[in-house]
Amino acid sequence: MGNATKPAYYFEDFEVGDTFTTPSRTVGLAEVATFAGLSGDYNPIHTDAEFAAKSQFGERIAHGVLGMSVLTGLVTRLGVFEAGTIALLGIEEWRFKGPVFDGDTIHVEVLIEDKKITSDGKRGVLRRRYQLVNQRDEVVQEGVMPLLVKCRPE
Fold first, then answer.
1. To the nearest 10°, the Cα dihedral for 95, 96, 97, 98?
2. Sequential DSSP letters for 51-115
3. Which CATH superfamily includes the segment(s) 11-150?
4. Has residue 90 got a pLDDT over 50?
5. Which pLDDT tens digit goes with each residue over 107-147?
6. Are residues 151 and 85 in contact, defined by beta-carbon separation less than 8 angstroms?
7. Distance (Å, rounded) from C-alpha 81 to C-alpha 13?
């Protein structure tokens, strides 16, 4: 769901070094169960309390890609990438650095690491580094998602 009240951001509006912090969201067992159903990933570390209690984590944890999915949703809520977005170009250097537990409240810190105009001069690529951070200020996931973005219309 977009935020129509925010201005449209195009390639030219971003500078290397720009940072953004998303709103937060709490992840609970309901989201984990729903994600297990959607993905078909019923690994007991996510779905079986007794199994998970005996694991290195001591309790159930959210799926790693559930964290990534929540991350993309939180970034969308910023409203700064929507208007100019053409395509996500990939996921690079992704690291799962720690678990997301039931009840963790997470947010995303975004850094524009680099930007390059394409050869046609009508588009550019933003190299966006993401950190998924919990309420204890622990980075639980980190990586890069380059984005192809429109240049400002003439």
1. 170
2. HHHTSTTSS-B--HHHHHHHHHHHHHHH-SSTTTEEEE---EEEEE-S--BTTEEEEEEEEEEEE
3. Hotdog Thioesterase (3.10.129.10)
4. yes
5. 999 999 999 999 999 999 999 999 999 999 999 999 999 99
6. no
7. 10
